[in-house]
Each structure stands twice: as C-alpha cells, then as structure tokens.
Specification:
Strand order of the largest sheet: 1-4-2-3
Structural class: alpha+beta
Mean pLDDT: 83
Number of strands: 4
C-alpha cells in the first residue's frame, strides 16, 4: 500500500518539539526599561517561540568559574537549550540594560553578603 504508514507511531513520523527547560527565579531582576507587562509578553515568547523575542537574559552559568551569563533570548532556539536547564535571574530589553542590571545585582550582593559572589547570591535568592 503506497502512502500508508503501518506499525509506526506518530512520534516516529514527526519530530516531537521538546519543551524548553527554563526556570525563572522567584526574585527576578527586571531591567529599568522592562515593565511588568512587557516581561509577561517576553516570557510567553521565550517559552513558545524564542526567535521572536528580542530580550537579554541573565542566567546562572552551567559550570566553571563564571558569575553570570548574558545571552540573547534568541539563542534559546538552538537545540542545545532543549536538553539543558536555563536558570534566569534577570531580564533586560537590550544589552546596555543587561549590563546595568548586573551592576544592580552586584550592588545588592555587596550590601547583603559583603562579597561579590553573584552566582551564590542569585542561587540563595532563588
């Protein structure tokens, strides 16, 4: 029988879109130009179609000695991020706003912990 698939499951016929594993910190930092309404829209786009969102995310690094990573939300469309958890601690509209957000997080870390271990500070805040 031509054109009929027998014995195959739908999953085998069509590649199943994996859900991205993105965790947003409960104490999320928002950039100055990011309003709550803008964030909700950006969050929805990040989870559904990251190529359409154009914000910068401050994330906890997956290893090494880095403190925080700044990535474009569009990077989440890459296959790598389908298999790895991304822990977001800040959202900014542009790169300049993201740098200002890092300064704000550093100031908060200094005033509370009296050190600059941003990774531990953001994990502790989560």
């Amino acid at each position: 029988m031509r054109g009929v698939f027998t014995g195959l499951k739908v999953k085998e016929l069509f590649r199943v879109k994996k859900q991205r594993m993105i965790e947003f910190s409960p104490n999320l930092y928002l950039g100055e130009s990011m309003r709550e309404k803008d964030f909700e829209k950006a969050k929805e786009q990040i989870l559904e179609t990251p190529l359409l969102s154009n914000v910068f995310l401050l994330t906890l690094p997956r290893g090494g000695t880095d403190q925080l990573e700044v990535i474009s939300s569009r990077y989440l469309a890459q296959g790598y991020y389908a298999d790895h958890v991304v822990r977001v601690v800040g959202v900014a509209k542009d790169h300049e706003d993201a740098v200002a957000l890092i300064i704000k997080i550093t100031e908060d870390c200094l005033s509370i912990r009296k050190d600059c271990n941003l990774k531990e500070f953001c994990e502790w805040q989560s």
